[in-house]
From TrEMBL:
It comes from the Bacteria. HAMAP family: GTPase_Der (MF_00195). This is GTPase Der. GO terms for biological process: ribosome biogenesis. GTP 1 binds at residues 9-16, 56-60, 119-122. Associates with the 50S ribosomal subunit. Keywords: GTP-binding, Nucleotide-binding, Repeat, Ribosome biogenesis. The keyword Ribonucleoprotein does not apply. InterPro entries: AAA+_ATPase, G_ENGA, GTP-bd, GTPase_Der, KH_dom-like, KH_dom-like_a/b, P-loop_NTPase, Small_GTP-bd. Residues 3-167, 179-354 form the EngA-type G domain. GTPase that plays an essential role in the late steps of ribosome biogenesis. The keyword Repeat applies. It comes from Teichococcus wenyumeiae.
Length: 446
């Protein structure tokens, strides 16, 4: 297990900026609005020559437990219990506050080593301002500017000296690489509740307020097959309703999470059914080449289940033909009922998405498809398709060769894709069809 480092501090002291600086990527959304980070985000990083898990947490605030701020604080406190080292970040420009001192007193009672990090020390007087952090009682503070990259090398070396001793290195089998899963959907569909149910802990902040999750938050767990790296994403509203820059960044983080995933779980609110925004999200996942499984959440609250299921299946058949046969798992994330069926469905869909068809089988299918339905005429001439290959999976990609193959009309392309899907049992998987015309050596020759 890699050592875990939690970044802790008041809202808006620069924790997410430091997180991005240390992982070397803009993974956490950064904005001047206090409280942008609500759920703890974790990512592998290399600090002081050591591989670590870095945790970005919500800002520590004094608040009642039943409020959003209170639930954010509880999540941050849970991260502290799992950490091997805490980076307690304070704003050197603003100076120490009563909250800083109160949280420092609480941290001193924990059984985890703490390093005080004085952020925003760029410019004149920055280093002097950092000296105030000695009052916190955690020894020598490290003065940095996360935004400008100043003092980061000192932070690396100090952190390396405070980490537990490095265990003997073990080689990781390629087969042990985690399945990459993205949880997507509209706001308040129950994505974070589902992630908590899968993890078996209150990792994500949940509640009746829509839009609680603002960033794409990564976690890991083990199912019956192996490791799963799961990303909970912000809810995606209709484009016309997205007005705030912060929400635009959240949607951008969701799209990036889809690009890095292998399978997308589209969470639907069974009480609301499948609407156009859900279909847009599914089409986005398909365009990115991701396999899709639908989690039909809040199923326990549906009264007429037969009508609800029929309505969803009819909509999928008419409006999401490119993912024909998509798997739908009815469940309740809040009660846990049916959640155990989700990961087996995800694993099965992943196998289809990763499936390669041998060339011999592929061309036997291809010849059969052509004999059942010949290609139509184009400009009065028949299109002759010669052979097919499958150069890659993830998603399954078929390349068909023949003179003027690129002139095939759209309906015949759909016929080939659906025929391939049925022949090789690939429901719910995007299939790419590429057409390559073969050149005639006698054209344009004198």
């Amino acid at each position: 297990m890699l050592p875990r480092i939690a970044i802790i501090g008041r809202p808006n002291v620069g924790k997410s900026t430091l997180f991005n600086r240390l992982v070397g990527r803009k993974l956490a959304i950064v904005d001047n609005t206090p409280g942008v980070t609500r759920d703890r985000k974790e990512y592998e990083a290399r600090i002081g020559g050591r591989d670590v898990i870095l945790l970005d947490t919500a800002g520590l605030e004094e608040a009642p437990p039943d409020t959003v701020a209170g639930r954010m604080r509880a999540s941050s406190e849970a991260a502290i219990q799992q950490a091997d080292l805490i980076l307690f970040v304070v704003d050197a420009k603003a100076g120490l506050t009563a909250s800083d001192r109160a949280f420092a007193a609480w941290l001193r009672r924990q059984k985890v080593p703490v390093l005080a990090v004085a952020n925003k020390t760029e410019g004149r007087g920055g280093t002097m301002a950092a000296l105030e952090a000695y009052e916190l009682g955690f020894g020598d503070p490290v003065a940095i500017s996360a935004e400008h990259g100043e003092g980061i090398s000192d932070l690396h070396s100090t952190v390396a000296g405070m980490l537990p001793e490095e265990p003997e290195e073990e080689e990781e089998d390629d087969k042990d690489r985690p399945l990459r899963l993205a949880v997507v959907g509209r706001p308040n569909a129950g994505k974070s509740t589902l992630l908590n149910a899968l993890l078996g802990e209150e990792r994500m902040i949940t509640g009746p307020e829509p839009g609680l999750t603002r960033d794409a938050v990564t976690s890991e767990f083990n199912d019956a097959v192996g490791r799963v790296r799961i990303v909970d994403t912000a809810g995606m509203r209709k484009k016309a309703r997205i007005v705030e820059g912060l929400e635009q960044m959240s949607v951008g983080a969701t799209i990036n999470a889809l690009k890095e995933a292998e399978v997308a779980v589209l969470v639907l609110d069974a009480l609301l059914g499948l609407d156009e925004q859900d279909l847009r999200i599914a089409r986005l996942a398909e365009r990115e080449g991701r396999a899709v499984v639908i989690a039909l959440n809040k199923w326990d609250a549906v009264e007429d289940r037969i009508a609800a299921r029929r309505g969803i299946e009819d909509t999928l058949q008419t409006s999401l033909a490119q993912l024909k046969g998509i798997t739908v798992v009815a469940m309740s994330a809040a009660t846990g009922r049916g959640v155990d069926k989700l990961m087996p469905a995800v694993r099965e869909t992943m196998e289809r998405w990763n499936k390669r068809v041998p060339t011999g089988e592929l061309n036997r299918w291809f010849e059969g498809a052509l004999s059942r339905h010949q290609p139509p005429l184009a400009d009065g001439r028949r299109i002759k398709l010669r052979y097919a290959t499958m150069p890659k999976a993830r998603p399954p990609t078929i390349v068909i060769f023949g003179p003027r193959a690129e002139d095939l009309p759209e309906d015949y392309r759909r016929y080939l894709v659906n025929s391939f899907r049925d022949a090789f049992d690939m429901p719910g998987v995007p299939i790419r069809l590429q057409l390559r015309g073969t050149s005639n050596p006698f054209v344009d020759k004198e």
